[in-house]
Structure formats: C-alpha cells, structure tokens
C-alpha cells in the first residue's frame, strides 16, 4: 500500500509546498529539517536539532516496534505528515494492526473494532489515551467556548460523568447527528461539530494519560 501513497508536509487542504512519496522522501526531509531549524521541534517533539533529527533518520530506531500502550502518545496537532492512499484499502491485505483509544474498551464502538480486527486478522493494540476534567481545560486554547463545552460533554456524555475522553466526545458528536435538538441551544450544526473537534484538540494537547 505504501507504493500507492502520496505524502504531504501538513494538511493537504492547504495546498502544501512539500509533497513526496515513499520513493521520493527528500521534500519531506527538507521540510522537517526546516521546521527544526526554525522552531527547535518537529512532529510534536520539542528539544530537537538538525543533527539529532539526522541521527534518527540514519538509524533504525524508527523501525523498531514499540507497544503504543507503553509509549507516550504523540501530541502533534498542526505539525504532521499526511498520507493519502490512492486506490482501495483492504484491511486484511494492507494493514497489520489497529490501535484503539482505551476509552472505547467495553463500548459498542470497542466491540465493533474488535470484530473488524478478528474478521481481518489484525492485531488490536491500544495507545495510552487521554483524559481531562473540565477544570483542566485552558481558556486560551482553541477559543473561549472550550471550557463551557467541556463541562457540557463531561456532564451529559461521559461514563461516569465528570471526565472527558475520546469516547465521551464521540457520544457528543453522535448525539448532535442523531438528536440535533439536544444541541439547538449551542450553535448551528456545522459550528457545533467544529467545536467538538476543537475540544478533542484540547484533550490531545493537555490530557493526562489514561493508561499508566
């Protein structure tokens, strides 16, 4: 499948300048080194230098499997390499594993994911996940509505109430789609959906690991 991928530095909707493939990675490497030189961080990892990035690229470190449940989860939101697969994706042929947020364990979504893995002979792995209480949501990240939205999600969609995680945000988005009247006091549909997405950004940026 990697032979059918186009890679871009940053989101493709913005018309990124640096585009490559698995056979032509030089544009991505150039963008990566430029980002490190400008900011000292790359792909959500701070404290990097051009030399340290080059050492990692030259080593086999990136090829070593690490259990995502034991590895600190990445927090990159606006700094990433996007991959687009051209053509059909067949899970049983094109994937090795599916990594699930632990918040979905024991939920309908979690059972569906397990069935998909069983049907396609995929390993089911878990990353550390993120949890956050409304009182831990900063008022100056992703807009002023994040704090009241966090309280709403934690009270109405968290199981048990009080903590935000990926599953509670999923329930909030599902309720918006299935019962739009339950959100009519908040904002129009598309704007509300965007707010829920932005609260997920807050969760990833500031959340505590769910697995320890």
Portion of residues in helices? Answer: 25-40%
Strand % is 5-15%
Please provide the count of β strands: 9
Q: What characteristic shape results from the CA principal axes?
A: globular
Q: Are there runs of 5+ residues with pLDDT below 50, and where? A: none
The Rg value, from CA coordinates, equals 19 Å
Q: What is the typical, i.e. mean, pLDDT?
A: 92
**Secondary-structure class:** alpha+beta
Major beta sheet, specifics?
A: 3 strands, antiparallel
Order of helices and strands: EEHEEHEHEHEEHHHE
Total helices: the number is: 7
Total individual domains: 2
Q: What is the CA-CA span between the terminal residues? A: 34 Å
Strands side by side in the biggest sheet: 2-1-5
What is the fold's blueprint, element by element?
Elements: E1 5-9, E2 19-20, H1 26-39, E3 41-42, E4 45-46, H2 50-58, E5 81-85, H3 91-94, E6 97-100, H4 108-119, E7 123-126, E8 130-131, H5 146-156, H6 166-178, H7 189-206, E9 208-209
Helix pairs in contact: 6-7
Features:
single chain; 212 residues; alpha+beta; 2 domains; 3-stranded antiparallel beta sheet; two-stranded antiparallel ribbon; 7 helices; 13% strand; globular
Summarize the structure in words.
This protein has helices at 26-39, 50-58, 91-94, 108-119, 146-156, 166-178, 189-206, and strands at 5-9, 19-20, 41-42, 45-46, 81-85, 97-100, 123-126, 130-131, 208-209. By secondary structure, it is of the alpha+beta class. The chain folds into two domains: 2-89, no CATH class; 131-209, no CATH class. A three-stranded antiparallel β-sheet has the order 2-1-5. The longest helix is centred in the C-terminal third of the chain and has 18 residues, at 189-206. 19% of the residues are buried.
